[in-house]
Structures are given as C-alpha cells and as structure tokens.
Design goal:
The complex is a heterodimer of chains A (about 120) and B (about 220). Chain A is α+β, with helices and mostly antiparallel strands and about 120 residues long. Chain A is built from two helices and six strands, in the order αβαβββββ. In chain A, helix 1 crosses helix 2. Classes of the chains: A alpha+beta (about 120), B alpha/beta (about 220). Chain B: Belongs to the SIMIBI class G3E GTPase family. HypB/HupM subfamily.
Chain lengths: ~120, ~220
Amino acid sequence: MHEMALMGEIVQLIEQDARMKNIKYVKKVELVVGTLSNALPDALQFAFDVYKIQEDNCLTTDAELIIHVEKAKAICTICGQQYEPVAKIAQCPTCLLPTGRMVAGETFRILAYEGG
Amino acid sequence: MKIALEVDVLTNNNRAAAFNRQLFEETNTLVINIMSSPGAGKTTILEKTIEALANEFRIGVIEGDLATEKDAERIRALGAQAVQINTHGGCHLDARMIAAVLPQFDFQHLDILFIENVGNLVCPSGYDLGQQHKVAVLSVPEGNDKIPKYPTMFMRTELVLLNKIDLLPYLDFDVEQAKKDLSYIHPQSKLLPLSAKTGEGMDEWLHWIREGVARCKKQSISQ
C-alpha cells in the first residue's frame, strides 16, 4: 500500500533501539510479513534498497533485508474448518460465508536486526 | 551482533494514536475520521454539517491534503476552527501528524473534531488516528463496485455515507447492490444515502452525530 512510508517506520524503530544499545550501523533486517498484511515484499525490498543507499540512516549500503512470509490462516466460526483464505474477507470453502476468523497472515513485525 | 526486536511496524503510530485517544476521551470530544476517494464530497458534507450543527455544537476540523490550505479555508469561512495538515506527497494522515496539531485546539471548548483524511481509498484505512469513529464517503459517480474492490477501507468503517444521490437518475449506481456488498464484507456497517448538495438524507447523518456527542457526554457524567 505505501511501502516507502512503512520502511520509514521500520528504519525509525530500529534506530530508536540501536541508539539505546549504542549500535552505530545496521547490516541486516529481518521482518515477518503476513500474506494479508497489505504490505508487499517486493515493494518493501525496493523501499529498503532506496533507504540503504541514503546516508541519513543507520543502514549500511550493502545491508540485507530478509522477509519471512507468514501464510494466512483462518478458522471458520461455524464449522471449525481451518483454511488458507485468499483475502481478508475470509470466506469458508465449506460454508461459503465470510465466517473465517483470521488467526495468521496479518502480521507485520520487525523480528530482528544485526549491526555493530 | 544480532538483536531480537519483535515489534509491530506500526508501533510508533499506535502509541501516538493511544495518546490522542486518551485526550479525546478525557475531554469528552467526539472525533470522527472521514475517509474517501478524492472528489467524493468529504469537504462539502463537512460544510453542510457545520452549517446545520453550528448552533448546537462547537466544532473543529483537521484537514489532510498533499498541498494547499484550500479545504481549511472553506471550513474557516463557516466560522469553525480548521487546521490544515499538508502531507507533501504522503498518501495518508498518521497519528503523529494529528498529535502534532492537537495543541492548536482548545479541547475544553470543543464538542466535535472531524478529521478529513487525504483523499485515498487505500492507505488511510491502515492508520489508527485515535478517533472513536471511522466513516467512509462513497459517491454515486464512482460506481457501486468500489466496496468489494477496496475491502480494507470498508471493512474498517462503521458508517458509509453514499453521497451525490441527486445524480442517481443519471447514472447506473445500484444502491441495493452496494448495500449487499457492504453487508457481506462488514455486516455491522451501515450505508446511508444522502446528497450534501440537496440536503436529502442529511438528517439521518446529523442524528448519528448527535447520538455520538450524547454518548461522549454521558460517559463524562458516569465517570
């Protein structure tokens, strides 16, 4: 949706943490991105590449972005079936109703970073 | 050195939203975040709303746009306080932008704060601003396929104002289909057809706002 702005959030959160730990540079960032989180891995990679060549942040120019994709999972509140929904309106393949409660796939988190 | 961070990417926004929400609750202010495509009629609806409610409530408006003070000027012309936020290319308002302008309002003398988001049916839906209510505006010329096409917006708004219904005789907008689509993706949401231009349907919207203000005030009495 707006991966440049989201990458700005990621860099800012990492810098906040790095400052407290006296870490000067960051060479690796690991994210968990759900398939239904509205954040697109390709666009995040592009945004990361834009950020890392700029000098006003903690990322090194050869910094690496690792994205762990979290598959979407929903459980139908009527029949209890667990399935992988293709959209946020999690239609149960058996009941054919949007009765799925999303239990995974909406995550958008920073897992870890590496630096020194 | 590897550091496990384990934080949501929108942590900073959500923190600011919680700060905003606390201020709104402590001062019993009804805060409504209005979102739509550009040109759906958000500002016109606000103008008509302010005209209708100016004698009952003290109203403030935060206007979000990429550039210009045009919308804030339209609101100020009606005597209401308006603060313009220019996002300079940003596609949405976030909670920190809102927090930054809140000191410009006197919340002891404010009943309602409208936040008019940047015209965009995608990104604004992802950011909590601390508001109590999210309202979407959809307009007849946009076509009734917008609800299923932009589900992330309509899944999160409790009320959808269908604006420009004075144009229904000239266009192929299927109101019943739009209601059906909305009830499928968000059964608790409501579609409210109106025309800011002719005033048709505005009474129900004004009633919804009055109820919201009453709920805010009641909370303050019970506290």
